[in-house]
Structure formats: C-alpha cells, structure tokens
Amino acid sequence: MDDMALLLLAAGASARMRGRDKLLEPVGGQPLLRRQALAALATGTRVYVTLPPGADARRAALEGLAVEIVEVADAASGMAASLRAGVAALPPTCPAVLVALADMPDLGSEDFSRFFKTFQGDPEKPILRGTTPDGRPGHPVLFPRRFFADLARLEGDQGAKPVLKAHAAEIRSVPLPGRRALTDLDTPEAWEEWRQLSQCPD
Q1: Residues in a beta bridge with 144
Q2: DSSP type of residue 187
Q3: Which end of the chain offers a freer environment for a tag, N or C, measured as fewer CB atoms within 10 Å?
C-alpha cells in the first residue's frame, strides 16, 4: 500500500510468563508470532519484525515468511529500543508505519488494513490509534513519517507514550470491535482466561 509498512514488535523477554515464551504460544495450531506475521502480510504491506539477539525459536516460527527481521541488540533496555531499530530499518520512501504488538492475538489483517485505508483517506495524515468502541486507547498505532524522528529518540520502556502525549491534538481514533485494541497476553493466567473466553483452539 504505497510503500507503507507494518512494524511488529516481538523483541520482548516474556518476563512474566514464568519460563514460557508468549510469542510461541499456540493459537489455532501455530505460534502466535507466526499467526500475527501472517495477518500483517495479508495487508499487502512490507512487514518488519523486531527480535532480540538469538531468539532462534522465534526466528524458526517466522521461517518461510516474507518478513524483514530487525535484530534489536539492546532489546533488554525496553520497548523504545525496538521502535528505534524498527524505524531505522524503514526505507526513505515509507510514508507511514503501523506499529503493532505481537502479543495481541485478537488483532487480524482486517484491523491492520483498516488503519492503512483510513490513513490514505485522511488528507491531514494524523496519527491513528486503535481504541475500543467506547474510546479507550490501545493498539495498534499508525505514525506518519513526520513523527519518525520523534520515535527514533525514544528511550526506556514507555514505548511511544511520550510521542503520543506530545502530539495528542494530532491523534485520530480508529475504533476496533470488542477489546481487540486492549487484549495483550503477558501471563499464563491471561492466556488461560483468553482461551476460555475466545474458545480459540490451541
């Protein structure tokens, strides 16, 4: 879609999973990371996936997919490192990037595509942020190129919150069904509850 990109953040440590890797949890018969990468590729955009050094199992989950892997050498320092590395990997012709968290299994290709279509149809080219139907902010978030420099200066583990706060007047909401914009799964308990509620097979 006009050289736009989707950046799938997958360099986290799964620290709260007590030894399991949340991105390798089975969803519909495949690892979550592969499932979300396939959903991203279905939009027709270029897909970039950030990974920490090593991460052989995560790399294996992406085997055969036309994604560009971005290794984040300082991934342990926080989410900002993934954002910096991901933005640095984008081509100079990229007009916007959709930043998505890889641990949000309710998001699919139709959700991702909605952001790109909304961006193309809005002459003001604002930041687009996923929300619940009643307006609670979540993910994913689309950033036009003019904000790339701000993303490249991020530090720590706040993600893009400082950029969103500084440019609050330039954000437009993209309501997504249910809790798609909010559901991320960081603990075994969260995974168990989600599987029971979604009735999604392993």
Answers
A1: 96
A2: S
A3: C
Q: What span, in angstroms and rounded, lies between the C-alpha atoms of 197 and 105?
A: 13
What would the pLDDT profile of 3-15 be if each residue is shown by its tens digit? 899 999 999 876 6
- Rounded CA-CA distance 44/134 in Å is 29
By percentage, how much of the chain surpasses pLDDT 70?
A: 96
Q: Is beta strand 5-9 parallel, antiparallel or unpaired with respect to 26-27? A: unpaired
Residue 85's CB is within 10 A of a number of other CB atoms, namely: 22
- How far is Cα 79 from Cα 70, in angstroms, rounded to an integer? 14
Task: Centre a 10 Å sphere on the Cβ of residue 118 and count the other Cβ atoms it contains.
Answer: 15
What gap in Å lies between CA 127 and CA 177, rounded to an integer?
Answer: 19
27 Cβ neighbours under 8 A, 6+ residues apart: 35, 105, 200, 202
Helix (H, G, I), strand (E, B) or coil at 145: helix
pLDDT in tens, 71-112: 999 998 999 999 999 999 999 999 999 999 999 999 999 999
Count of residues in the chain: 202
Helix (H, G, I), strand (E, B) or coil at 130: strand
Task: Report the C-alpha gap between 109 and 112 in whole angstroms.
Answer: 5
pLDDT tens digit string along 56-68?
999 999 999 999 9
Residue 19 has pLDDT above 80, yes or no: no
